[in-house]
Amino acid sequence: MPVEFSEYKGHKLIVLKGDNDSKYPFSFGKTKAKLIVENIEAIKAFAEEE
Fold first, then answer.
1. Rounded to whole angstroms, how far apart are CA atoms 30 and 48?
2. What is the distance between the alpha carbons of residues 29 and 14, in angstroms, rounded to a whole number?
3. What total number of domains does the chain contain?
4. pLDDT tens-digit profile of 1-50?
5. Domain containing residue 40
6. pTM surpassing 0.85?
7. Cβ atoms within 10 Å of 45's Cβ, excluding its own
């Protein structure tokens, strides 16, 4: 999965893409990144649900 870094209104963003041609990349800043890291186990469990 390609990862890029960008900026929006002076704030750093991380941009995750499914592939290089992804039309809809997923981007977020530091505040959301910290929330993701703090809740990674719950996110993993959610992703593995059927």
1. 25
2. 6
3. 1
4. 789 999 999 999 999 998 888 888 999 999 999 999 999 999 999 999 98
5. 3-48
6. no
7. 9
